[in-house]
Amino acid sequence: MHTETIEYNDGDTVLEGYIAYDESLSGSRPAVLIAHDWTGRRDFATGKAEEIARLGYVGFALDMYGKGVFGRDGDAEYNSSLMNPLAGDRAALRTRMQAALEAVRDLDLVEESMVGAMGYCFGGMCVLELARSGSDVLGVISIHGIFSPGDVPNETITSRVLCLHGHDDPMVPPEQVLDLEKEMNAAGVDWQVHAYGGTMHAFTNPAANDPGFGTVYNEIADARATRSIENFFEEIF
Fold this sequence. Notes:
Layout: E1 2-10, E2 13-21, E3 29-35, H1 43-54, E4 58-61, H2 76-87, H3 90-105, E5 110-120, H4 122-132, E6 139-143, E7 160-166, H5 174-186, E8 191-196, E9 209-210, E10 215-216, H6 219-236
Parallel strand pairs: 3-4, 3-5, 5-6, 6-7, 7-8
Antiparallel strand pairs: 1-2, 2-4, 9-10
């Protein structure tokens, strides 16, 4: 497997993405953007890019914060300080996601019309906003992501949408799930929500073990989500 980091820009902000792909395959291929959680483009996100590469696609772990800017394990205040400026400014968030999309499409190996996106926690919010922006990505997957929209109007959503959600996630209460379903229905979106019972936030992250904060790994839900991710990208590509 080939892996490397590349720089790209959102205006004056220098960003650093992580690319992974299978060198034994020939020709152009689909690509999947991977949007990180609130700790930034760290090992979890790059590992997911490598998992995507093993499916035969180009995995691109994007950067929402800027080159060399990362969160800290267990430091909610600092991680929030990185996430909140973008979470609170959805226009800026959408622009940053578009910069990542343009960067991955500039890669010679990528089939430009065959791009999807997936994101974890904060990254789930990011990929939903990419879809809400009217982007022509084929599909997006929010994985224990935040569903609430910002104050920027939606453009016409053409992407298919899959949300993989823990029913007991304290950060996304049932009312927020229902609101998203109503939003997607009103927009005529091809959408799915898979809710896993007895499952909290961050259920795909083996390092998550803080019931008081609401982040707990769930091996069964993780395995089910992995199969759903593979099926979704096989379908859209």
